[in-house]
Amino acid sequence: MSDCLFCKMASGEIKPDVVYEDEKVLAFRDINPKAPVHILVIPKIHVATLNDLNNGDLAGLLLQTVAKIAQQEGVAESGYRTIINCNSDGGQEVYHLHLHLLGGKKITSPLA
Ligand code: AMP
Ligand code: ZN
Prior knowledge:
alpha+beta, binds zinc ion
């Protein structure tokens, strides 16, 4: 989608602080981190919300990527929280599916 911020990151048009990339997923540091480790994991194809995710293989890959990055960032053992905000009441601001990975401190509250 041409006007989607995260699609522009997936295509390389905008360059975020990338921590992991493969053929299907991209992970980068959140620009407004809510924890010492705050990373967003996205599919490279445009999926607007969790409601639109109809590919189980991609869903699994996104979750496995979160776990892989948690290892990479050194928070797998101490722990972390994964959040997916969906639509207005869920607090979704960017309408390209993303999984938040939060760690590096005790995560006591959901994202504001
Ligand atoms: P959500 O509320 O779940 O849609 O979260 C969107 C997230 O994207 C927020 O945590 C923002 O800080 C983050 N974000 C927005 N723009 C950028 C950007 N250019 N680079 C990295 N993260 C961003
Ligand atoms: Zn998109």
